[in-house]
């Protein structure tokens, strides 16, 4: 096979996608090349728009367009007022929970986890979570971090950060396997984990 730098680079990039290897990437590249007008042009345009406009909200962590304002009073997925916040590690977890239709409320995407050795990532939105709880009438925080060491370390840190605030804190319970990641769970498992969530603190207030 003749080496063409542009194609080789595209294959290399696509093979970095989750679940894709070099062979799958090559098939995708060939599909794109053979459908330039139908796929390549609109894909290139859309990717450029995503790169330019899509960012993470600095308060709640959700993906948003730069043309849409997101603040303490409007960090939400739907236009209804809720009193619960579901805390997840990343956007993939948010999407998985939304698809299960088990949760009706706000989301807060941390953007990662605290490492098992206790090192806190600078970009985790834990401080903004505390501020959201303080400034809004939030009655329950649902910790939906993964059942990994890092996920549970992060959950404990959040629990400590909210210890002086009068808010109920729960975590996903039955149905969430040890070591399991939220985005890899099926809808039935997520529904079970949400329905059987446990309260893990009593506020000192």
Question: What does it look like?
Answer:
The chain has 205 residues and is an alpha/beta fold. The protein has two domains: 52 residues, Helicase, Ruva Protein, domain 3 (Orthogonal Bundle), CATH 1.10.8; 132 residues, 3-Layer(aba) Sandwich (Dna Topoisomerase Vi A Subunit, Chain: A, domain 2). It has seven helices and seven strands. The strands form two sheets. A five-stranded mixed sheet has the order 4-3-5-6-7. A two-stranded antiparallel ribbon has the order 1-2. Helix 1 packs across helix 2 and helix 4 packs across helix 7. The longest helix has 18 residues. The chain is elongated, with a radius of gyration of 20 Å. The N and C termini lie far apart (70 Å).
Using the coordinates above, name the CATH class of the largest domain.
Alpha Beta
The percentage helix is 40-55%
Question: Could you report the average pLDDT, rounded to the nearest whole number?
Answer: 81
The 3D shape can be described as: elongated
Domains, number: 2
Radius of gyration: 20 Å
CATH topology of the largest domain: Dna Topoisomerase Vi A Subunit, Chain: A, domain 2
Largest sheet: 5 strands, mixed
Strand content: 5-15%
Secondary-structure-based class equals: alpha/beta
Biggest β-sheet: strands ordered side by side in the sheet? 4-3-5-6-7
Succession of helices and strands: HHHEEEHEHEHEHE
